[in-house]
């Protein structure tokens, strides 16, 4: 009995019985809903279609995928350099964000300002005052040396 079923199927499908090449719904009932092929969401997207169209046009013109217009390469290079510079500035800003660093920077600025003020005062002072200060310094140094 199973052999007779096989021979019956062979008679219906003379091409060798490949079920995938001749589905049943083509010959069958018209009331059945025929399946539709599903759309690939990637291929259906506008951006993918535009990219594919651009690749086809570049292929027809003979341009490779890697070759870009010079202007586009320069702009990408500038954009990349700008991003690198921004990242470096952000890192430097993060380094200076610590309270210890802020305090050190503030003290350093204060010392620089005091030194500038002293230089201004020394420049405007008469020469005899400068000589007198130098004499005091030498006298204190020699006095310390005698005590030691």
UniProtKB/TrEMBL annotation:
Residues 109-148 are annotated as: Disordered. Pfam families: DUF1151 (PF06625). One of its GO terms (biological process) is actin filament polymerization. It is found in: Cell junction, Focal adhesion; Cell membrane; Cell projection; Cytoplasm, Cytoskeleton, Stress fiber. Residues 109-136 have a biased composition (Basic and acidic residues). One of its GO terms (cellular component) is nucleus. One of its GO terms (molecular function) is actin binding. Keywords: Actin-binding, Cell cycle, Cell junction, Cell membrane, Cell projection, Coiled coil, Cytoplasm, Cytoskeleton, Growth regulation, Membrane, Nucleus, Stress response, Synapse. Stress-inducible actin-binding protein that plays a role in synaptic and cognitive functions by modulating actin filamentous (F-actin) dynamics. Mediates polymerization of globular actin to F-actin. Also binds to, stabilizes and bundles F-actin. Involved in synaptic function by regulating neurite outgrowth in an actin-dependent manner and for the acquisition of hippocampus-dependent cognitive function, such as learning and long-term memory. This is Actin-associated protein FAM107A. The gene is Fam107a.
């Amino acid at each position: 009995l199973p052999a007779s079923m096989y021979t019956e199927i062979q008679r219906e499908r003379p091409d060798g019985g490949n079920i995938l090449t001749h589905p049943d719904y083509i010959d069958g009932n018209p009331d059945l809903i025929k399946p539709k092929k599903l759309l690939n969401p990637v291929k259906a997207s506008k951006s993918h279609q535009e990219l594919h169209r651009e690749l086809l046009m570049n292929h027809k013109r003979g341009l490779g995928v890697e070759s870009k217009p010079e202007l586009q390469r320069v702009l990408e290079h500038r954009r990349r350099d700008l991003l690198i510079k921004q990242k470096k500035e952000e890192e430097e800003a993060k380094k200076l964000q610590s309270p210890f660093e802020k305090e050190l920077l503030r003290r350093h600025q204060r010392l620089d300002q005091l030194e500038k003020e002293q230089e201004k005062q020394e420049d405007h002072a008469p020469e005899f005052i400068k000589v007198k200060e130098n004499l005091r310094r030498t006298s204190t140094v020699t006095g310390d040396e005698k005590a030691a």
